[in-house]
Amino acid sequence: GLELLPDPLIVDLAGTPTLLSHGDIWCTDDLAYQRWRRFSRHPAAQFVYRRLPRKWREAVAGKARGDGTRNKAAAILDVNAAAIEQAFASHGVARIIHGHTHRPTTHRLTIDRRPVERLVLSDWHGADCEYLEVDDAGLRRRLVS
């Protein structure tokens, strides 16, 4: 019953135009990852991958995760500041929410003389799961352990 959302996607969260994304599109300094991203999202690659036995798919995914950050400088693994500024400018939003880098924090920035914020979500470890709760009162980080 789940629906795969486009990435990125603009939504209204408590009256604030917000861009939701996985976040990897802004890690433009990691050229090897960007090549892998283009390949792995290509329809032909997905067609073949989905027909592999489950154990093989899990092995490919595990290897990609393990090799993805090995021997890379921390700065390369984070989003590129210019790419983030471009995303704010081109989408005209006041907030971006993403994961991928899993360095949870809220960045308050000024871009084109307007205040904006970027929320980075944590990853999920075992029973520890961070999520965002949005209602008329605003947006809050929550942690379930």
Blueprint of the fold:
Blueprint: E1 9-13, E2 16-21, H1 31-40, H2 43-50, H3 54-68, H4 74-77, H5 81-91, E3 95-98, E4 105-111, E5 114-120, E6 129-135, E7 138-144
Short summary of the structure?
It contains five helices and seven strands; from the N terminus they run ββαααααβββββ. By secondary structure, it is α/β, with parallel strands linked by helices.
Question: Can you describe what's shown?
Answer:
The chain is α/β, with parallel strands linked by helices. It is built from 5 helices and 7 strands, in the order E-E-H-H-H-H-H-E-E-E-E-E. The chain has helices spanning 31-40, 43-50, 54-68, 74-77, 81-91, and strands at residues 9-13, 16-21, 95-98, 105-111, 114-120, 129-135, 138-144. The strands form 2 sheets. Strands 1-2-3-5-4 form a 5-stranded mixed beta sheet. The mean pLDDT is 87.
Keywords:
145 residues; alpha/beta; five-stranded mixed β-sheet; two-stranded antiparallel ribbon; 7 strands; globular
Element-by-element helix/strand order = EEHHHHHEEEEE
Indicate the radius of gyration in whole angstroms: 17 Å
Reading side by side through the largest sheet, how are the strands ordered? Answer: 1-2-3-5-4
What is the average per-residue confidence, as pLDDT, rounded to a whole number? 87
Total helices: the number is 5
* Residue share in helix: 25-40%
Structural class: alpha/beta
Record field, number of beta strands = 7
**End-to-end Cα distance:** 25 Å
Which ranges are low-confidence, i.e. pLDDT below 50, for 5 or more consecutive residues?
A: none
Biggest sheet descriptor: 5 strands, mixed
Beta content = 25-35%
* Gross morphology: globular
